[in-house]
Amino acid sequence: MARHVGRGWYGRVIAAAMGVTAVAAATSVWTAQAGQTGGGAAAPRASARAAAPEARPVSVTIAHASDRGAHAVNITIDDGPDPVWTPQVLRVLRDNGVKATFCMVGTQAEAHPELVRQVVAAGHRLCDHTVSHDTTMDTKSPAYQARQIVDAERQITKASGGVRPMYYRAPGGAFTPYSRKLAASHGMRPLGWNVDSKDFERPGSDAIIATVERELPGGPTILFHDAGGDRSQTVTALRALLPRLKQQGYAFGFPVR
């Protein structure tokens, strides 16, 4: 659920880092998630537990831009995975050849690891959306923020089979200097949005499309949801909107890292 990003900041910046171990994913899956390219035969599936590659720190500034340039769109999907709606969203994305960033709630990822793996296998990226989607996180202690962020990172990484989230999105935009610094130290770029589709309010698919088209000139990153209630309007809106954006010459990318 979206909340205005401009809330006040709380807490002081405290450096933190934790290692995460998980079952290693196949090299081809990791490459799709990390957005890397390369040739050669795919490596065999890992048969033993191994540490995921060490995360490299990234920028603490909140990302909005697209890695595909000025005339591009970043599709971001929040609050899942959900066993009803995530597969439908994945189908629409697949049918249109579009990759997206899925901002997952830790408990949802833990409950539905097969969906997390489907998201990764399809070439989409993962984003840490905390353990419990607390939109008042910016009023809580650094210790609480750390648990929400790091525990969700662990849950998502384990559910994915060893692929770490590449971004961190604060619930409702409740970022703090501390949470941004912590996420960045774990290799997760803080991720904002430019366009709130308002799909969470279920205003109708036509209204969702109209909101996106009206606000898209303000920036490329669009917020949708695949959980938190009936998301049929989101699915319908995406089905109509994605080909329309292609016809208008938009490229589809990922948020900058």
Automatic annotation (TrEMBL):
This is Polysaccharide deacetylase family protein. GO terms for molecular function: hydrolase activity, acting on carbon-nitrogen (but not peptide) bonds. Residues 71-253 form the NodB homology domain. Keywords: Signal. Residues 1-26 form the signal peptide. One of its GO terms (biological process) is carbohydrate metabolic process. InterPro entries: Glyco_hydro/deAcase_b/a-brl (IPR011330), NODB_dom (IPR002509), Polysacc_deacetylase_ArnD (IPR050248). It comes from the Bacteria. It holds the Pfam family Polysacc_deac_1.
